[in-house]
Amino acid sequence: MKIERFSIDESGYTGFDLLNPDQRFQGASSISITDEDASTFIKEYFPKLQAPELKYKTLARRSSNRERLVDLQRDVLSQNKCVTYVCDKRYLLTLFFLDIAVEPFYYERGFDFYKDGQNYALASLLYRVGPTLFGQNAFHELMSRFQRAVREKTQNATNSLVQMLQGLHWKELPEALGPLAYEAPECLAEITRPGVNTDAAIVVLQSLISRMEVMADGVYQVEHDRSENLKQYHSLLQQLISHDQNIVFKQTEITSIKFPLKLSSVSQVDSKDSPSVQIADILIGAAIEAANSLAGLSSSHGDAEELLGLYSDEQFIHMVPSLNFEEDKEFRRGTQAGELIEYFAKHFN
């Protein structure tokens, strides 16, 4: 029996640093397509390609390529199993702040901080009003000191974070900032606990896998580019594949993750030798550009809304702040976010 294969490519990965000014968004695309079919698409839309491989950033620089890039994606998305994930890394960092520096306080007191997506609502609120309440520069510095404290895990870095927070008008939003302002020991311990980090790789992978597990008819494989950025993804995928416990976690109204996975193996390839990975590069490159354009961070030559409109609902996942609290609560009602976070922390590095 032939095993289905998904090809993955990523964009915007900056490790622990989610405040990188040049990389506001991070994401990845996964597509189930044979190299033969991928080559056919490439030859059809870029028959005169001289470069050794198809790269979105290179092709998108020429306005003459724009229409063909859109048409290529329209055909690829309509004919293949695909999923693209994009997240606002600053919003994700705000979520990490709540997970690491706030949630332990509530956990110790028997309160489910993640119930019905309350953490997402509070993160959206903090993300939106933090710059207004404390000043744009001060809020940015607070988040910067937080990710540095998590990375360095030193007393000096943690003290620097707490002292700055205490100097802000944190009582304007005590639900989010009070635990750390009062130096809750369980929150300080979580910041310095080995293994805790602000790397978005696991978040991206969880989202892609939740969709690939649904899209795949049976056992499937994953291949990705042999790049420095994807080394972290490769290690995590290997751990997820080898995990053989039987357990299911509900993530949202429409997604869940079940172990053991149908994913059987992961391999690294040179993207120059993989037309399938090159197609994934086109998808994620265009999606990141569209996200930057919609956020007002770049002037795209194309129509970002038109591009994202090529995706069906199940083909696109995004993590961005939302102040529609009731809709988000309904979407995440009954989810097992807390249990999933604890499970991943216990079983995966």
Structural commentary:
- The protein is globular, with a radius of gyration of 21 Å.
- The mean pLDDT is about 90.
- A hairpin with a 5-residue loop joins strand 5 (about 245-250) and strand 6.
- Helix content is about 55%, strand content about 15%.
- It has a 6-stranded mixed beta sheet with strand order 7-4-1-2-3-8, with helices on both faces. It has a two-stranded antiparallel sheet with strand order 5-6.
- It has 2 domains: about 5-90 and about 200-345, 2-Layer Sandwich (Nucleotidyltransferase, domain 5); about 90-190.
- The protein has about 350 residues and is α/β, with parallel strands linked by helices.
Short description:
The chain is an alpha/beta fold and 349 residues long.
List the helices and strands and how they pair.
Layout: E1 4-11, E2 25-32, H1 35-45, H2 56-60, H3 63-79, E3 81-88, H4 89-101, H5 103-108, H6 118-134, H7 136-152, H8 155-166, H9 174-181, H10 185-192, H11 201-215, E4 220-225, H12 231-242, E5 247-250, E6 256-259, E7 263-269, H13 275-294, H14 304-308, E8 316-319, H15 325-331, H16 337-347
Parallel strand pairs: 1-4, 3-8, 4-7
Antiparallel strand pairs: 1-2, 2-3, 5-6
Radius of gyration: 21 Å
Q: Would you identify the CATH architecture of the largest domain?
A: 2-Layer Sandwich
Stretches with pLDDT under 50, minimum 5 residues: none
* End-to-end Cα distance: 33 Å
Shape: globular
CATH class of the largest domain: Alpha Beta
Number of helices: 16
Q: In CATH terms, what is the fold-level topology of the largest domain?
A: Nucleotidyltransferase, domain 5
- Structural class, please? alpha/beta
Q: Based on DSSP secondary structure assignment, what is the total number of beta strands?
A: 8
| Strand fraction | 5-15%
- Series of secondary-structure elements, N-terminal to C-terminal: EEHHHEHHHHHHHHEHEEEHHEHH
